[in-house]
């Protein structure tokens, strides 16, 4: 940077630090508010173009603040983002889970605070590594941000919700998804954001460089959107999604059970031209052994028509205590099962000491763990021989865990129960995640949920059809099986994470504190 740019940066730094030091509480609230506004770039608002601008205040802090101050601002920003983006956690735990109010608030705020710590760590590392120097800042910020996002996605079971790459599913940057996955999309978005921030901080002589860096990711992504990474292979599969529309508070009532059986049976047997029928997660409030007679009757009709049914249901190991959240496949030839591998903490298993579990039992709260399935499982197969990659609910947030299914799998199936979230933004966020999985793998997604948002999604992540929420829906569409591998399906997250880690380590080794800061 020349002397003029240094002077501008120093003046901006001084003004920012004066406000931050004189009014730390107000500054923290401002960063929390900016973080909350970032939710506008995600579904259901989908204002993807806002993301670089709403990240700018936090990124500026990382450039001009000392590491400790940048970490405080990052913590406030992350808390604001996740308070606005995961308030539905309270609805799930208290309203539908019927946990006491204080437990719901404690768990929700605990999640928010933990997520805030990730942002604090990212900002501390960026500030410490860049040390106020603009070029290292531009280089290291995308690397550190995405590495922390990736860690957030798997440490202690992980919570990859609201990875910033998801906000770009409808932007030109989504063109990178089949190549780099969602983390690569995040990296290019951050590169564009930090380059945009650098534009007013350099002299006119050098301004073309950050302007070009701001635009290049968008131009590159737009070009990649026109590349066909996979192709249709075989005749389209006539597929029907059945969305029961049964609210969570009624689903397990004894008087509702026969109505539920009749609803799904009638919707399934109403036509003979459906090759594949998909029901939601735990569509039947029972275990397989409890409704085996019902399923056998349906299978007989499926066998006659050459149809395949996939249904979410609980599976009980009658020789032990294991209970699985499963998808059962009936194709007239055999009964196949896929068992959910990535369970939801405090929903499907409880990582708590025994004395806490005993207390939960006394309070009549859920306290028993489900059993996870194996990491690699045989693919479910239709009567016509098409192999399917299945993810149950929350599992589709972990794209890399599904890659073992390719290239054999020609279609992605996601069954979910977003009824736990009520009328909140969570089902829209979850649909956004499912769209990213379709784009990464170059496969169509058939997504069946209990009360919305069920959808047909094409291989480019575009929504072809959805049904209304909180209603019964039966919708049918021809879905082409796909063949081939995207670069991401072939290599996963490894190339992106290794490249970003190398960038970070290189910058870290060269980091020095500037004298003006």
What does this 3D model show about the protein?
With 517 residues, the protein is of the alpha/beta class. The chain has two domains: 3-228 and 493-509, no CATH class; 231-341 and 375-485, 4-Layer Sandwich (Nitrilase/N-carbamoyl-D-aminoacid amidohydrolase), CATH 3.60.110. Helices cover 47% and strands 13% of the residues. It has a six-stranded mixed β-sheet. A six-stranded mixed β-sheet has the order 7-8-9-10-11-12, with helices on one face. Strands 1-14 form a two-stranded antiparallel sheet. Helix 14 links the parallel strand 9 and strand 10. Helix 5 (88-96) packs antiparallel against helix 6 (101-130) and helix 7 (134-152) packs antiparallel against helix 8. The radius of gyration is 25 Å and the shape is globular. The model has no long low-confidence stretch (mean pLDDT 89).
What's this entry about, in short?
The protein has 517 residues and is an alpha/beta fold. 47% of the residues lie in helices and 13% in strands. The protein contains 16 helices and 14 strands.
